[in-house]
Amino acid sequence: MMQRLRIDLIAAARPNFMKIAPLFHALRRESWCSVRLVHTGQHYDKNMSDAFFSDLGLPAPDLHLGVGSGSHAEQTANVMLGYEAACVAERPGLTLVVGDVNATVACALVAAKLHIPVAHLEAGLRSGDRDMPEEINRLVTDTLADILWTPSPDGDANLAAEGVSPKKITRVGNIMIDSYELMRERIEASGERQRLGLERGGYAVVTLHRPSNVDAAGPLGELVRQLIAVAARLPLVFPVHPRTRKNLEAFGLWTTLAQAPGVQLVEPLGYVDFMNLVCDARLIVTDSGGVQEETTYLGIPCLTLRTTTERPITLTEGSNQLIATAELVPAVENILSGNGVHGRRPELWDGHTAARVVADIRRRWNLVAAEAVEAVVP
Ligand code: UD1
Ligand code: UDP
């Protein structure tokens, strides 16, 4: 009689929820495993967390670590303490982490030290920029992971260059697209664009939260000036991330931006309403990782206010462009004159990534033909 594989599915922050949801739904259908949903609590506002659980059909987490906000060390250490206790109380057979937030690396570290196999979904992405906290999280997580699921060939190449055994790597495609496809009908029916009084193809969506863009008054002030100039040409809707809101207020920029003609500042949106806005937008201005991928899938021109991206396939195949803040107005003009990049959908970005992950876990499980869950890893 084969023992059921107990899988911990870790989520912490907004970009994690749409990565774990398709996996949760796929794994729940399998009789050979059981899933414990662990929320570390890094994001806790209703519209940064709960809204995603209800939008994506996720049940309340089995375990909530309640770490909240804090410095990198505080957040990482508190997740480690909470998750270690959870593993000791009820040892999983596999710790499945996604993305590149602090909980990703914290839970990978805890599991690795308890000799619990670690699987990383969205492995192999590299920006090459260690000033980004996420890059440190990616490097450490991938060093520790026993199973590395990559979204694109650049991920495989990065891992190979770092000496990761090919046996540990399976290219599964992009899980974000699974969420989009799962929710597509609801996204199309959401009505958010109409509620905000926007014309199809007649506005841009803005999201910004990278510390390099929003944490200092100089860069954020310059961004605000550029956005106001863009809004004179094309209406902007900007769901403001809490980090960004806090800084706009602290630097005295909030009112200037909120009162500028053509600018709508709104609260962070749930997944369905946000994607409804993205689908009908003329273009997107962002520094988000996930939004670069969603716009590539949808063929919507995306202007990314960063000097690097860990998702280079969105540049080479997709609709993404890296720009400096000072280039925003001409880049928008260029798109409005009909020169926007629409690109194509990368291979395996097809809505079937969760199924490939499930098949890979099964394959690894069956490969070792053992009853003990510890034997999952090659
Ligand atoms: C985190 C991730 C980042 C990801 C982003 C997605 C790390 C290192 N950073 O950055 O990779 O791109 O989430 O959104 O893991 N806050 C609230 N309410 C919340 C959450 C945060 O008000 O529900 C405020 C707090 O003031 C907090 C600040 O936002 O200090 C930053 O939150 P934090 O989770 O530390 O970092 P993010 O910028 O959200
Ligand atoms: N998103 C959302 N509402 C918003 C802004 C973003 O639902 O108001 C979604 C977006 O569609 C994407 C994810 O959040 O799926 C990306 O998260 P975020 O930009 O916070 O993090 P990153 O991807 O940069 O780590």
Mean pLDDT: 96
Rg for CA atoms: 21 Å
Global structural class:
alpha/beta
What is the share of helical residues? 40-55%
Which percent band covers the strand fraction? 5-15%
Q: What composes the largest sheet? A: 7 strands, parallel
Biggest sheet, spatial arrangement of strands: 3-2-1-4-5-6-7
Characterize the overall form: globular
What is the CATH T-level topology of the largest domain?
Answer: Rossmann fold
Q: What is this structure, in a nutshell?
A:
By secondary structure, the chain is of the alpha/beta class. The chain contains 17 helices and 13 strands.
Description:
With 378 residues, the chain is of the alpha/beta class. The protein has two domains: 5-173 and 349-376, Rossmann fold (3-Layer(aba) Sandwich); 191-336, Rossmann fold (3-Layer(aba) Sandwich). Helices cover 46% and strands 14% of the residues. It has helices at 14-28, 50-55, 72-89, 102-113, 133-144, 153-161, 175-189, 192-195, 211-214, 217-231, 242-250, 254-258, 271-279, 289-298, 313-316, 328-339, 353-368, and strands at 5-11, 33-39, 63-64, 94-98, 118-121, 147-150, 169-171, 204-207, 236-239, 263-266, 283-286, 302-304, 320-322. It has a seven-stranded parallel sheet, sandwiched between helices. A six-stranded parallel sheet has the order 10-9-8-11-12-13, sandwiched between helices. Helix 1 (14-28) links the parallel strand 1 (5-11) and strand 2. Helix 1 (14-28) crosses helix 7 (175-189) and helix 3 crosses helix 4 (102-113). The radius of gyration is 21 Å and the shape is globular. The relative contact order is 0.13. Mean pLDDT is 96; it is low at 367-375. The site of uridine-5'-diphosphate has 16 residues, from helix 1, helix 13 and helix 14. Residues 26-360 form the UDP-N-acetylglucosamine 2-epimerase domain. Pfam families: Epimerase_2 (PF02350). Keywords: Isomerase. It comes from Rhodanobacter caeni. This is UDP-N-acetylglucosamine 2-epimerase (Non-hydrolyzing).
